[in-house]
Amino acid sequence: MHKKERPLTILDKIIANKSIEVERAKQSISEASLTKSKYFDRVSNSLARALKNPEGTGIIAEYKRKSPSKGDINIGAGISETTIGYSEAGAAGISILTDTVFFGGFKEDLEIGRDKNPKTPLLRKDFIIDPYQLLEAKAWGADVILLIAANLESKQIMDLSKKAHELGLEVLLEVHDKAEIDKSPMDFVDIVGVNNRNLKNFAENNVNASIELIEFIPKDKVKISESCISKPETVIELRKIGYQGFLMGENFMKTINPAAALADFVSKIKS
């Protein structure tokens, strides 16, 4: 009898597509060309430092047009005005999606975000599987890259995070359960983010994962909670148990004016 294969998850499909994208990009733009970008030699802004600032908001505001689970979120929001507004509203950092097929992002979004927000830490939000993408991130103006434990082996996490540090990029490692924490070498990880949403099915709409995993994250790492955060009270409660940052995208992006929504959210946290 043939062993029944498990159905492909959304994450499987994204990674399969990403592998093809990366190989095409390598054929199109050489590594040498990437290193000649105007942003490649700039000194990165530290997201970890911004999140540790007791006077800061701790909010990493995300710019994304759509997602696999929600479909179109805000196709019309401009990258310039949204990211400038985020910075002015006090975002500790800005996460910018560069995956096109599943999230509607473009490398130009990151480049424009960099140009318009020179002092704000920028995260390249994508599915990193190859060192070439780290060069892209540096070339496009990112300060931080995302590594997702759910789709990487331990050696990949070690190799990619070490290479990122060599390029002067900070590393945000995203986990969803204790097994992912246990398998992940943290030597070159600056920030550990707990994604409250399960990337394999994009289900779950609570912050239980963050509450359950806080005790297992190394004490010396900056800790952030990601996704499923919509109320100021949730941020306040998560802060009490040790989280310093909160990555929020859909909550702001689904509004007519994402930057104004962030400003309102920040005022409620502070009050």
TrEMBL record:
Keywords for this protein: Amino-acid biosynthesis, Aromatic amino acid biosynthesis, Decarboxylase, Lyase, Tryptophan biosynthesis
Top-level EC class: lyase
Reactions that this protein is recorded to catalyse: 1-(2-carboxyphenylamino)-1-deoxy-D-ribulose 5-phosphate + H(+) = (1S,2R)-1-C-(indol-3-yl)glycerol 3-phosphate + CO2 + H2O
InterPro entries attached to this UniProt entry: Aldolase_TIM, Indole-3-glycerol_P_synth, Indole-3-glycerol_P_synth_dom, Indole-3-GlycerolPSynthase_CS, RibuloseP-bd_barrel
PROSITE patterns found in the cross-reference section: IGPS (PS00614)
Pathway membership: Amino-acid biosynthesis; L-tryptophan biosynthesis; L-tryptophan from chorismate: step 4/5
Keyword Disulfide bond in annotation: no
Database matches in Pfam families: IGPS
Domain Indole-3-glycerol phosphate synthase residues, every copy: 11-262
EC number: 4.1.1.48
SUPFAM superfamilies to which the protein is assigned, alphabetical: Ribulose-phoshate binding barrel
Record PANTHER family: INDOLE-3-GLYCEROL-PHOSPHATE SYNTHASE, TRYPTOPHAN BIOSYNTHESIS PROTEIN
Protein name (database record): indole-3-glycerol-phosphate synthase
Species: Lacihabitans lacunae
